[in-house]
Design goal:
Number of domains: 1
CATH class: Mainly Beta
Shape: globular
CATH topology: Pnp Oxidase, Chain A
Largest sheet: 6 strands, antiparallel, barrel
Number of helices: 3
Number of strands: 6
Radius of gyration: 15 Å
CATH superfamily: Electron Transport, Fmn-binding Protein, Chain A
CATH architecture: Roll
Order of helices and strands: HEEEHEEHE
Helix content: 10-25%
Structural class: alpha+beta
């Protein structure tokens, strides 16, 4: 990988970290469904972890169609990021508690909420529109 390519990859992870919240789009029986999620970058694994809950049929959606689309926007730097990958659901409550922060408390009662689970998205493709760079 060239220095320029590495700089682009580093910028993608930086945007994920700065934006924090993403919109996840996935296929389900009646079409597309989009939901907000907190996205936690795992650079060394080329994946994004999203904390979510057991309600709302997310695991069934992922099982039926694991390809998902994540979008991150960081308006302070006028950057937009679109990621495509394959999602996997982790039902281990200890893993969910380990990743939980206070940001998610708007959606559930905290790190010990029994409905909390981890969705792992292994990334295939990234597209970025970065105004300072373009």
């Amino acid at each position: 990988m060239t220095q320029d390519e590495q700089a682009q990859v580093d910028r993608i992870w930086e945007v994920i970290e700065k934006a924090g919240v993403c919109m996840r789009a996935a296929q389900f029986a009646d079409g597309l469904r989009v939901r907000p999620m907190v996205g936690l970058p795992t650079w060394d694994e080329n994946a994004v972890l999203c904390l979510t809950d057991r309600c709302g049929l997310k695991d069934a959606d992922i099982e039926a169609s694991p390809e998902v689309y994540l979008t991150f926007v960081y308006p302070n730097e006028n950057v937009y990021l679109a990621l495509t990958g394959e999602a996997f659901v982790n039902l281990d409550p200890d893993d969910a508690r380990e990743l939980s922060t206070h940001k998610e408390e708007a959606w559930w009662s905290g790190p010990h909420d029994p409905n909390l689970l981890v969705m792992r998205v292994e990334l295939w493709r990234a597209e970025m529109w970065d105004s300072p760079v373009n």
